[in-house]
Amino acid sequence: MRWGKLPHHKTLEDYDFSFQPDLDPRKVKGLAALSFVEAKANAALLGPPGVGKTHIAVAACRAGCSVYFTSLDDTVRNLTAAEAAGRLTNKFGTYLRPSVLVADEVGYQPLERAEANLVFQVISKHYEKGSIILTSNKTFSEWGQVFGDEALAIAILDRLLHHCDVIPVNGPGYRLKNRLAAIERDAQVA
To answer: How confident is the model at residue 178 (pLDDT cuts 50, 70, 90)?
Structure first.
């Protein structure tokens, strides 16, 4: 768990499925069973910020397989630095060794072409050799903008989606639910 750099240790028991009524709990629990890892398939959790995509991704990784958790921005930053230092091949191993690579926050920042190419290399090398769980606030049709190149985005999606369970998580954000209620209460009092 420590090597995998998981950001927290939440479980599916901590997840409030009632707050996301359109989310199928069976699909999420199936993800946590990790049968997709045996098949070297992928999972994509898509939805707006704060709906629990990262929580689900982390909870799915608690079943005992080797995991490496990273944001897409950290991956790009680390790969770019490794390339500049002449250690890119070694750095790829960080992302390719674990059974599951969790790529969090795909799409929060647009990438330059060279950065997107590094991401493509990781995904291409991981294809059918390991599993990827990704979280994104962007629809797949927006990935051309994220990766700065429509053809490159299609090549990435081709490898990711070939064997992939796509789980939409659409609904209100958890982090804001109590804060927004408090703001509304304060506004009514004033």
So the answer is: low
List the structure tokens of 59. Answer: 């909870």
| Tokens found for residue 16 | 């409030």
Residue entry with tokens 């493509």: 120
pLDDT tens-digit profile of 97-128? 999 999 999 999 999 999 999 999 999 999 99
Distance CA 176, CA 134 (A): 23
- Give, in order, the Cα–Cα distances in Å from 189 to each of 176, 185, 186: 20, 6, 5
User: pTM of the entire structure?
Assistant: 0.88
The class of domain 12-189 in CATH terms is alpha beta
Helix H, strand E, coil C: the string for 122-181 is HHHHHCCCCEEEEEECCCHHHHHHHCCCHHHHHHHHHHHHCCEEEEECCCCCHHHHHHHH
Total residue count of the chain as it appears in this document = 190
**Tokens 């958790």 label which residue?**
69
Measure the CA–CA gap between 51 and 172, rounded to whole angstroms: 6
